[in-house]
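Table S2 (continued). Query chain:
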Amino acid sequence: MDTNRPGPQLSRRRILKGAALAAVPYALLPAARAGAQGNVDYPPAEWQPANTGNYTSSDRPAAYLIDRVIIHITQETYSNTLSIFKNPQKKVSAHYLVRSADGHVAQCVREADIAWHAGNWGYNTRSIGIEHEGWVDQPAYLTNALYEQSARLTAAVCTKYGIPKDREHIIGHYQVPGTDHGDPGPNWDWVRYIRLVNFA
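Corresponding output:
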């Protein structure tokens, strides 16, 4: 839980698991922050902005040092996850979302801002959160395309912020202090992933 951030204290797992949601029509969403539309931090990504009520505006890395990448599994489909991030009542987001089938990357929160993904305010302030479409107990979602495109994204983030490309700095959600999450789960191949990150 993000115990130091404003807003309701909701479990990310409850939010992402509960997903019989209707998508919020795009036209009803508040406008993205000035200059953010179409101006992604990672050029291969598509801009799919989270609702501004689902993250904290900031000026990282000036305001907070970025020294971690946190890997997540959505426990949801790609499209439902985007809908959750766009719903202002959900109070959850991540910087990036990677689609299983083809590795397509959506950026949902600017890297300078603090996404609400780790359930720990201190870790949110210092990390980039990357969600991956799928379920921890369904390894078929962990496609070659997902691993390869996610590793390229993580490598770019690490290079940009001087983050070492190792398991101390690229962590799973389950490693965040105080979490009750187990993602990315036992099927996530960390050896393969770190190798891909280092050769991207």
